[in-house]
Design goal:
heterodimer; A: 319 residues; mainly alpha; two-stranded antiparallel ribbon; two-stranded antiparallel sheet; B: 321 residues; globular
Chain lengths: 319, 321
């Protein structure tokens, strides 16, 4: 009989093995980074990390739920780009900025709803459906903006992405509130339990009366909506809306979720794990930025982390 | 093997409809020069799509091909500028593509992770590493010998069209008549059955990824040799063009079916979209949206026809029972 590594550990550690390992990895990383650069452990820099990971983090909450069911959403980066452009275009045509933001978030939810509805009605795997909608939503962003960017947003709007509440960046609060809400929904409600059940064994879940199709549509809609929220924070942070915003963002989001211990096969994973995975990516990216490694080259590290994280997940669970 | 001729006929009809619309609204589309341009522009898509289909036949799509194309483009361009003999440059481009395909294949089989996830990772790794080495610089002043590959012609037909035509002809022959070709379909339609009949699925998968990489190298030679510079964003979005072409051409995205005729028709459709939009005076920025819609229509069509087929099989079985 083959026993996985985790079988030999005490129960309390076994149950939180991934989270514990990630926490240790995070501490080690922070120690290494602080030794490499004196600028790392400053308040200013830590806030930079938070500003950077908030958008990825907001989307990763929905992505965790999607991957829990054994699905995936590759279209989140495009959805972010599309929602940002919708915000910009509505504002440019005279809408109130906050109304425009609400409509943009609604458009994100609609995009997510379409993903879910197509997956459920055709039975085609979400990898393929969202690969197609990735192109569609990006095309809409580029088509509406014609490659231009929208600027000149009102000063009050910038508070979301550039402002502080007390000493803390505003988007940290947005992210934490959403994380707590999604965390409770997944861990403490019947909906959440049913979601884990569905990811673990879809047929069994269906026979126990779980409305599988409706739940899938719901979590894709949630992910799309969160991409819309992330788009608002992003536009507010960088002061302009561009059609190519959020390209390859799905790489960071999926890496954070998978690094956080969520199995791509579904049924396992927690919001806490995702948040730890997210912090690790934030620290790695920030450390590389401090070491003057260009953004595009950083993708080498994120891509490697993705592959290694999936491999380690398999190995730890002995499957 | 079930061949869906209906699919191929419906794309051909769709292309004909586009042709009629153009004939009415933009007859200048049919100037000989424009048609030749379209064929040349479609060549590299057709070569890459045939490669993509080999990976897709095993059920494992490769989405890193745009980054592989960029690496092949910069490596071959830099070699040509440095004065390496052109035949050697050609071999190197294909070999580098094959080597990167090998990396993908080994990662997918070694770690037993789905290719879309692995190649999402290598897509970033390959391009990131390339940008690290080039520092984002472009390559200028490509030598005439290098550019002759893409700009030259034989018997009045441009070289890229020759390369694509030969690739598809040889490819069709290999898929139909060699043990390797038959085994690719077998692995994709039922991995376990293929294993039991003595085919090693992992070896098939690795060889399909290597062949795909080599074909991306060949596609690079049919593309970058036509321009005077190689830009740092070369090949971005290439994976969409080829996956759209393959899926629209009737291949099942998770393996087992797909034809060379389908790849050819799919490539033509993908290759003309941008130009057709321009001639109909619609902004080419909508091209990606159209490609996404094509993929969705194609996979939905596949699902509907599969349902109809299984319903048909069931009723035949019931009648004979």
């Amino acid at each position: 009989m083959t026993r996985s590594i985790s079988d030999r550990l005490p129960d309390w550690l076994q149950e939180n093995l991934v989270e514990a390992a990630l926490f240790v990895a995070l501490l080690v990383l922070i120690f290494v980074m602080s030794q490499l650069s004196p600028a790392f452990l400053t308040t200013r820099n830590l806030f930079n990390i938070i500003r950077f990971i908030a958008e990825i983090g907001i989307i990763s909450l929905g992505m965790t739920a999607v991957i829990l069911t054994g699905g995936i959403d590759l279209s989140v980066g495009s959805t972010l780009g599309m929602c940002g452009i919708i915000l910009g275009a509505l504002f440019a045509s005279g809408f109130n900025i906050w109304l425009a933001a609400l409509i943009a978030i609604g458009a994100g939810a609609l995009a997510g709803f379409l993903n879910g509805a197509i997956v459920v009605t055709t039975g085609v795997h979400s990898l393929v459906v969202t690969l197609a909608t990735l192109a569609i939503y990006r095309g809409i962003a580029l088509g509406i903006s014609q490659g231009d960017s929208y600027r000149g947003f009102p000063e009050a709007f910038f508070s979301l992405g550039q402002g502080y509440l007390g000493p803390v960046p505003v988007q940290l609060f947005i992210f934490l509130i959403l994380a707590i809400l999604v965390g409770i929904a997944l861990g403490r409600t019947t909906f959440g339990r049913a979601l884990y059940g569905l990811g673990h064994n879809e047929v069994a879940a269906r026979f126990s009366g779980v409305p599988v199709a409706r739940m899938k549509v719901a979590i894709f809609t949630l992910t799309g909506m969160l991409s819309g929220v992330a788009a608002i924070v992003f536009v507010s942070r960088v002061s302009s809306a561009r059609g190519d915003a959020g390209q390859l963002l799905e790489l960071d989001v999926i890496t954070a979720v998978v690094l956080g211990g969520t199995a791509l096969t579904g049924g396992r994973g927690t919001i806490l794990g995702t948040m730890l995975g997210l912090l690790i990516i934030g620290v790695v990216r920030n450390g590389l930025t401090l070491a003057f490694v260009p953004l595009e080259v950083q993708a080498v590290f994120v891509g490697s982390i993705l592959i290694v994280a999936v491999a380690i997940n398999r190995w730890l669970r002995g499957r | 093997m079930y061949v869906d001729r209906g699919r191929e006929i419906s794309i051909a009809v769709f292309l004909a409809v586009i042709g009629i619309v153009l004939l009415i609204f933009a007859p200048s589309f049919f100037r000989p020069g424009n048609l030749e341009n379209l064929l040349v522009n479609t060549s590299y898509v057709a070569i890459g799509s045939f490669g993509a289909m080999l990976a897709i036949l095993t059920g494992q799509p490769d989405i890193s091909v745009g980054s592989i194309l960029a690496v092949c483009a910069f490596a071959s361009g830099a070699m040509a500028v440095a004065g390496v003999p052109i035949p050697l440059v050609i071999v190197a481009a294909i070999a580098i593509g094959a080597a990167l395909g090998l990396v993908n294949g080994l990662l997918v089989t070694g770690l037993n992770i789905h290719a879309i996830i692995v190649t999402l990772g290598t897509l970033s790794i390959f391009r990131g590493a390339l940008l690290y080495f080039t520092g984002g610089a472009w390559i200028y002043d490509l030598p005439a010998g290098y550019r002759a590959i893409g700009l030259g012609s034989v018997l009045g037909i441009p070289n890229p069209v020759w390369i694509a035509a030969l690739t598809l002809l040889i490819g069709a022959w290999v898929l139909r008549n060699t043990a390797w070709g038959r085994a690719l379909y077998a692995v994709g339609s039922n991995t376990e059955a293929a294993r039991l009949s003595g085919i090693e699925p992992n070896r098939m998968l690795i060889s399909a990824f290597v062949a795909n990489g080599a074909l991306v190298g060949l596609a690079t030679l049919a593309l970058t040799t036509r321009f005077s510079t190689i830009q740092s964003n070369a090949g971005v979005g290439f994976e969409f063009l080829v996956i759209t072409a393959v899926v629209v051409g009737g291949a099942h995205i998770f393996g087992g079916s797909g034809t060379v005729v389908g790849v050819l028709l799919g490539s033509l459709l993908v290759g003309v979209t941008g130009t057709v939009l321009v001639f109909l005076e619609i902004s080419a920025f909508w091209e990606r949206t159209l490609h996404g819609v094509f993929i969705l229509l194609a996979v939905s069509y596949g699902v509907v026809s599969a349902r109809r087929r299984s319903a048909h099989t069931r009723s035949v079985a019931e009648e004979s029972a």
